[in-house]
Amino acid sequence: MSRRSIAWLLAAAAIVVVAACSRAPHLVVYNRTGVSLTIERTPPYESDVTIAPEAKQRLRFPDAMQLTVIAGDAMWRYALRFPPRELARWSTLGSAEFHVQIEPDGRVYVLPPDVQLPADELPPQPPDFPISPST
């Protein structure tokens, strides 16, 4: 195989890898609980993730579709589901990003693309939302 063929093959492989990595859905989590939230280490997170009150953090959607969150003295466990596709914000590379807001009672609300974080008035929710934690 010629050097030129190998170079083209490597370039094509690199594009596939970058495209695959960039298409993983993300969450932008806004903490409206009044206390710091700590998302316990869950793949793909290599360590705990802390979100200060009234702050937001962008995270990759968890591989296990489950999260454990420490909120002050409370421990909340979530079985996550993907929000409806029409609630996604799309990057130029085609990856979906969902904006969610966690309220003081632990419920997670998904926000449509035209609503900015934080939302003072929570919009109507799609089926299976808001997501309530189990304790």
Please, could you describe this protein's structure?
The protein is α+β, with helices and mostly antiparallel strands. The chain has one domain (25-135): Immunoglobulin-like. It has one helix spanning 3-22; strands at 26-31, 37-39, 49-51, 56-60, 66-71, 74-79, 89-90, 96-102, 108-111. The strands form two sheets. Strands 1, 4, 7, 8 and 9 form a five-stranded mixed beta sheet that branches. Strand 7 and strand 8 form a beta hairpin. Mean pLDDT is 83; it is low at 16-22.
SSE arrangement:
Blueprint: H1 3-22, E1 26-31, E2 37-39, E3 49-51, E4 56-60, E5 66-71, E6 74-79, E7 89-90, E8 96-102, E9 108-111
Parallel strand pairs: 1-8
Antiparallel strand pairs: 1-4, 2-3, 2-5, 5-6, 7-8, 8-9
Structural class: alpha+beta
First-residue to last-residue Cα separation: 59 Å
CATH class type = Mainly Beta
Number of strands: 9
Summarize the structure.
By secondary structure, the chain is α+β, with helices and mostly antiparallel strands. The chain has one helix at residues 3-22; strands at residues 26-31, 37-39, 49-51, 56-60, 66-71, 74-79, 89-90, 96-102, 108-111.
